Amino acid sequence: MHIIPKRLFLTKGVGRDREQLASYELALRDAGIAAFNIVTVSSIFPPGCKMVSQRKGLALLKPGEIVFAVQSRCATNEAHRMVAASIGVAIPADPARYGYLSEHHAFGQKEQVAGDYAEDLAATMLASTLGLDLDLDRAWDDRREQWRIAGRIVRTTNVTQSSIGKNGVWTTVIAAGVFCD
């Protein structure tokens, strides 16, 4: 059996409830993916896969369908505690090669920081498989520019959701890369 998705869309959501599971369900609803049976998969962006908008991706899916996704999730019920969930994506210039998705979840990180970290992580994983320089002491923006100039990584992006917890109420954030045909 060969299941190789043709499309991927990114989505994010936040949910709040007295119950942790209910807050997760509400985060899935906010992200538009609560109607699916989600199977979490690892971090490969398939060769030839295309990124599409959330609207286009959701139109390809049916309620109850088994859907594969790379998912990041973080939750808290502590007042004032910041949570973040992020998916980073790195797509190679050669569409015959595979790329990477990364999951990152954190406490206390702002959305921009968590998103940059996840994007950097995905690009670093892709760069290592492409044999590119991995000077981890260089700033992310410098490395991103270097890899783009080399022409081996064509696109990096991320989707990130952050939120601040409230005392006694579960706050769950999710970010997901959802595969579809």
Strand order of the largest sheet: 2-5-9-1-4
Write the CATH architecture name.
3-Layer(bba) Sandwich
Query: What does the largest sheet look like?
Result: 5 strands, mixed
User: How many distinct helices?
Assistant: 4
**What is the C-alpha radius of gyration, as a whole number of Å?**
17 Å
- How far the N terminus sits from the C terminus, by CA atoms, comes to 16 Å
Mean pLDDT score, rounded?
Answer: 91
Q: Structural class of the helices, strands and pairings?
A: alpha+beta
CATH homologous superfamily heading: Pyruvoyl-Dependent Histidine Decarboxylase, subunit B
Helix content, binned percent: 25-40%
Low-confidence stretches: none
CATH class: Alpha Beta
Oligomerization state of this entry?
single chain
The fold-level CATH name is: Pyruvoyl-Dependent Histidine Decarboxylase, Chain B
What percentage of amino acids are in beta strands?
35-45%
Supply the number of structural domains.
Answer: 1
Shape field: flat
Order of helices and strands: EHEEEHEEEHHEE
**Number of separate strands:** 9
Structure explained in plain terms:
The structure is a single chain. The chain has 181 residues and is of the alpha+beta class. It has one domain: Pyruvoyl-Dependent Histidine Decarboxylase, Chain B (3-Layer(bba) Sandwich). 27% of the residues lie in helices and 40% in strands. The chain contains four helices and nine strands. It has helices spanning 20-31, 54-59, 111-130, 140-150, and strands spanning 7-17, 37-40, 44-45, 50-51, 66-76, 82-92, 99-107, 153-164, 170-180. The strands form two sheets. Strands 2-5-9-1-4 form a five-stranded mixed sheet. Strands 3-7-6-8 form a four-stranded antiparallel sheet. It starts with 6 loop residues before the first strand and ends with a strand. The mean pLDDT is 91.
